[in-house]
Amino acid sequence: MCEDNDLGFEKFTDYDLEETLMLGDIIISFDTAKRQAKELKHPLYIETYHLLIHGLLHLLGYDHIKENEKKEMFSEHKKIMQEFLKNTEDSKYANSSWLMKDSF
Q: Above 70 in pLDDT, residue 46?
């Protein structure tokens, strides 16, 4: 596993939809995203989507320390990527095994 390349703060636990919802911040290193996209041979915007979704899932309380947590987080990540990329020429990236291997 590689270390996280995005930072998510504040675990998502309880909220009131009537109020403004602030989950935390997601910071993505452009240099790291660029390097990883090159290493994994996919477009930079795919890597950026991946890191954004990864950070958002952390803000929503998901984690990938334990294997069962990793599988749950990966499953949610894949669903979101599929939705982002459905009906596009890059939809193949939503089902790629690279999501599970090096990115968590």
A: yes
Q: Spell out the CATH class of 29-101.
A: alpha beta
Q: What is the pTM of this model?
A: 0.72
Tell me what pLDDT residue 99 has. Answer: 61
DSSP codes joined into one string, 4-68: PSEEE-S------TTS------EEE-HHHHHHHHHHHTS-HHHHHHHHHHHHHHHHTT---SSHH
- What pLDDT, on the 0 to 100 scale, is given for residue 1? 34
Asked if residues 55 and 77 have their Cβ atoms less than 8 Å apart, the reply is no
9 Cβ contact partners less than 8 Å away, ≥ 6 residues apart: 24, 25, 59
